[in-house]
Amino acid sequence: MARGGRFLDGNLKEIRLANIQQRNDKSLFRRGVTWVDSQVFEQASGKSAADPRPRHRLRDPEYFELARRLADEKRSGVLAVNGQLLLLLDGKRILVKGPA
Predict the structure, then answer these.
(1) What is the number of structural domains in the chain?
(2) What is the pLDDT of residues 45-62, one digit of tens each?
(3) In angstroms, rounded to a whole number, what is the distance separating the alpha carbons of residues 56 and 22?
(4) Is the pTM of this model over 0.70?
């Protein structure tokens, strides 16, 4: 699938999916106002996570630390989604709301 949830069907007609997008190395699925990292459901074991709820909410200093880390890794585009982001990072589920 192309970035932004767009692809061509068999008749070369462009199809857009509003609830799926690709940002850097992350596939994201929208649930309400929250974009969910596909890795939340498929952790290292390859099994679906039984509980996709966040384990950690970022506060302002942590948000900027995360933004710097992702920028250093050339992966900061994932923070550009509209709404909340439920991200799997270092094996932890993190709810990113952005700075308050």
Answers:
(1) 1
(2) 555 444 556 666 677 788
(3) 23
(4) no
